[in-house]
């Protein structure tokens, strides 16, 4: 399968520690789900308090510092505290949507987050960009430049389909990266200037 990856930043939230919640709120608005980042953060914290286990039944205290989940929740509910892998997973579960998180660390760091923990091609996708530590530690909302065309082989038949995934980021120098993983190969171009 050949996929052409090209996305642009749809919304670049302020770098105030609320960027993950702001970027996700922007993506949810594509599906007529409108929340302020503050309301969105509160809803996630309430859900985590009510359901402190993951999809496998493991308590989330196993994934936070010192296994202190109540302290984690108190900190996470404060304005300006960075969202993390726990909040991303919970959003996916709450809204039954899949998140594609593209990283400035390259395609090997791109993550698919879904309610089941597997790639779910039939779920709606939210597209986020993550500037990793050392690159700004920041989340942005992404959108395709155009509907990308991808070709899928079914035996000897090539089908042309539209898909809107990928990423283009501006940083410090020019590099080109190959995308590999579920769904085949493709190109993730990062323009680092």
Automatic annotation (TrEMBL):
Q: Tell me the first and last residues of the signal peptide.
A: none
Check the record and name the InterPro entries matching this protein. Answer: OTU_dom, Papain-like_cys_pep_sf, Peptidase_C85-like
Give the matching Pfam families: OTU (PF02338)
Instruction: Tell me the Gene3D superfamilies matching this sequence.
Output: 3.90.70.80
Q: Where is the OTU domain?
A: 8-145
The record lists the membrane-crossing segments as none
Q: Kindly give the PANTHER family that the UniProt entry links to this protein.
A: OTU DOMAIN CONTAINING PROTEIN (PTHR12419), OTU DOMAIN-CONTAINING PROTEIN DDB_G0284757 (PTHR12419:SF11)
Q: What is this protein called?
A: OTU domain-containing protein
Which organism does this record belong to?
Answer: Tegillarca granosa
């Amino acid at each position: 399968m050949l996929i052409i990856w090209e996305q642009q930043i749809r919304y670049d939230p302020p770098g105030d520690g609320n960027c993950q919640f702001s970027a996700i709120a922007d993506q949810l608005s594509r599906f007529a789900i409108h929340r302020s980042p503050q309301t969105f953060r509160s809803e996630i914290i309430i859900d985590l308090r009510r359901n402190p286990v993951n999809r496998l039944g493991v308590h989330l205290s196993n994934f936070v510092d010192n296994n202190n989940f109540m302290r984690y929740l108190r900190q996470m509910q404060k304005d300006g505290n960075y969202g993390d892998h726990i909040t991303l997973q919970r959003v996916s579960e709450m809204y039954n949507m899949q998140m594609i998180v593209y990283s400035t660390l390259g395609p090997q760091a791109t993550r698919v987050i879904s309610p089941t923990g597997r790639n779910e091609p039939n779920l709606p996708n939210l597209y986020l960009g993550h500037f990793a530590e050392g690159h700004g530690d920041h989340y942005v909302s992404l959108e395709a430049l155009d509907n990308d065309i991808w070709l899928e082989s079914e035996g000897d038949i090539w089908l042309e389909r539209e898909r809107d995934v990928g990423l283009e980021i501006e940083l410090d120098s020019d590099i080109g990266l190959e995308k590999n993983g579920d769904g085949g190969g493709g190109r993730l171009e990062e323009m680092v200037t």
